[in-house]
Amino acid sequence: MATPQANKLAASQQGKTPQYAAATPGGSASTPAYSNLHAAFSPSGPRSSPQHVKKSPATAGAGGIMMSVGNSSSGQPGGGVSAPMNFDSPSAAAFNSMLGVGGFDASLDNMGMGMGGMALPRPNGEEERQKRLDEILHILGRKKGVVSEEGLERLVKRIGLDVLWEDRNNLKILAIAGTTFTLDIGMKDHKVQTVALQYAFSGDEVNKYKKEAEAILLENLKLKPEQIPWTKQLDDFANNLEPLAALDKLSIIDDKGSPVLVAYDAIAGIFESLQKVHEWDVKKLREDPAYSEKPEQYIRTIAMCEQNGRPWVHEKGVLGVGLEYWRDQRYHIPSAARAEAWYKAGKHWSIMVSCARRDPMVYTSAVRISDKWIGDEVEMAATEGLPQMLNWQEPPEVMMPEKPGDELLSLTGPRTPEVMFMAVVNPPVTLPVTVWEQIHHYTQAPVAHPAFMQTFDYLIFPAEENYNPTEPRMLQMDKSVRAKNKDGVFKEVLHENRLFIHKPAYGQTLTELPFSHPSQLVNMLPILRQYAFLWNLLDKSFGSQVQNPATPPAEPAATNGSATLTAKSDDFDTFMSHAQANADEPTPNAGVKVDVTLNALSLPNPKLQITFPFRGRPAQITVDIGRNGVVIVESTNVVNDEGQVLGANGEPLKGSGPRSQCSKERLARLLMFFEDIDTWCEFIRANVGPE
């Protein structure tokens, strides 16, 4: 794939983005009739609208109708380059008469377009009404309603579950039934009082967490002390009931009423195996002397962020199973008084484990039901010269019972269910496109590129206007930093941050992908942590997590909000030439200028070059963001390899002896601890220097 370059392109090339589906010159002019034929036989009528049909004379040839005359320099029909038709010429009039159009109409609303017997019909009034109705239903579908008897019944029917009202124990019971579960909601005066969940076929692996599921559903429906009836929204309840119903519909019960596949059991088996691996990780960390004095929750956090993740079931208001693999400020140890609240709070990254319908022609691996994905001995016996490996197992496949008529399909063996495991990344993680492809290869998932791709930086920080992916880009953001000096006194420091991307890389956002084995989830965790950490660093300095200064500087470079600028190619040299001058001597009433250059094209790891004022000169540190969010200081003019502080001439300062506190490894570890570029810069400015 071609990569956008920082140098200026010709005007006709600027802003171009790879298109994977393009019109082929010389293609058959009757091609558009196929899409029209599909629309004509669609239950909702043609999918096209007048807005989709309109073309200008300049673009009509690219969309499927070749508005040109078959002239060629070689004299052969169809050879050479077709000349565009002059719509004022006699030939154009003849062409229009063939199409049944009296004169050229740019809107093409009245054009019949005879195409080999097929005609492009003009949408009639019924089709337009159907389209508008579909749009209205889509908008209304976003609203889940409020907690009430009518609201709950309407929501359940919309999801596709059976519903029945009963009177029981002075309560009005809404009985919700699927194929594999029932949910009874007890109400009185439109107020939810009780919730009872029952699984019809599931075993202990599912039922032992039933109380947690009921508590979450009750919390979704129960009014808070200050709330009154008809004011609580059903959104949270719907977000939990819809996945529950989806798994129910994927479950398979045979003609005798016996379960063939229960999706809840398949997901519970994944959880049990991952939980076994997590407990083994925690046990190994406890044996490490470095963690002997650490709190239990801290050890589990390290196992989550550096080992094989932490599985969870029915947590934080969400029904389901997930694998948590990252959190903000993983190395922070809170006080005992606030430890429980702190570990529950903060931003977390997880992979939700679910199931989805499978097309055997696209993805061959079907769902399996087992809690033996990992062996009794979690770790395999060590092999000389190879790292330790987990003892993953391959459970047997689920086989579908034979049905009459299977022999007519020439099936040579038992069929597997058309259901697959699905990993839902929450929150989605933005990756360079090559890394995104690599993740798909881990699970043998099909790689389907969209027709239009955005750049990696655009997906993290969308541009509002005037964005050109072939040009360098600069973002500016003012940030108020709470910094502590050597005396332990905190003060507010204004940072004028600038992010520069002069080598854009194309990217994709990973939201979900199929998988067949929990080991595939574990294998992708180091990469997901790497880019979750990178996103967190950038977002804290240039995104939604920035704490804007209360009082702006006298002449701010940007407003208190985010200001996104597109730097032209010919401005790049000017920007770089002023970078050092700006870092040398801050002007009065100006903030500390921190410049960050992102290189997402660097392989195998992205890099950040960070420049800020330090001891009367610009400090420059290049860091490598590796797997699992491990930071390596690749180069710097602040300290040398021995931990000596350097001067402007690159020589160690007088009185600066080797100190482990000033080593490159220590600086890298501090960035991993702070997870904040601005706080890290202020720490270096205040604490790194000769004794």
From TrEMBL:
Keywords (A to Z) from UniProt: Activator, Nucleus, Transcription, Transcription regulation
Biased composition (Polar residues): 1-17
Mediator complex subunit Med1 domain mapped to chain residues: 134-542
Superkingdom as given in the UniProt entry: Eukaryota
An individual GO BP term: positive regulation of transcription by RNA polymerase II
One Pfam family recorded for the sequence: Med1
Region annotation (Disordered) ranges: 1-81, 546-565
InterPro entries: Mediator_Med1
Localization: Nucleus
Any one Gene Ontology cellular component term annotated for this protein: mediator complex
One function term, GO molecular function aspect: transcription coregulator activity
Leader sequence segment: none
Family affiliation: Belongs to the Mediator complex subunit 1 family.
Job of this protein: Component of the Mediator complex, a coactivator involved in the regulated transcription of nearly all RNA polymerase II-dependent genes. Mediator functions as a bridge to convey information from gene-specific regulatory proteins to the basal RNA polymerase II transcription machinery. Mediator is recruited to promoters by direct interactions with regulatory proteins and serves as a scaffold for the assembly of a functional preinitiation complex with RNA polymerase II and the general transcription factors.
Protein name, as recorded: Mediator of RNA polymerase II transcription subunit 1
